[in-house]
Design a protein that fits this description.
Length: about 110
């Protein structure tokens, strides 16, 4: 539920009220008791992320990630047969598949 700012046009009293979005605006001033209250338009509160794990790069597009990888000197390759992603800059080699042995030729 949002917090709304109110100001009384009669006495100048200002305060915040925690209300539902569907609630009707207050009209009667709690300070002077007159019907001169109006809801102010405010900037509202900013989004607050609590906890760890929220980084600017978490939600980057694939094209941005690919360009960043190229700029860093590595390229990402996808092995479509196995669905594995390897990076040329990581120094790891994809596992080689064993070739089937023809038993007729080896005998």
């Amino acid at each position: 539920m949002p917090t709304y700012d109110y100001a009384c046009e009669k006495c100048g009293h200002q305060f915040d009220e925690f209300q539902s979005i569907t609630a009707k605006p207050l009209r009667k001033c709690p300070e002077c008791g007159k019907m001169g209250l109006r809801r102010l338009i405010g900037a509202g509160a900013g989004i607050i992320f609590k906890g760890s794990g929220f980084y600017q790069t978490d939600y980057r597009s694939d094209s941005y990630k690919n360009a960043a990888t190229r700029d860093n000197g590595g390229t990402k390759k996808t092995d479509k047969a196995e669905g594995k992603t390897t990076s040329a800059s990581s120094g790891t080699k994809p596992e080689a598949k064993a070739e089937p042995v023809d038993k007729k030729k080896s005998a």
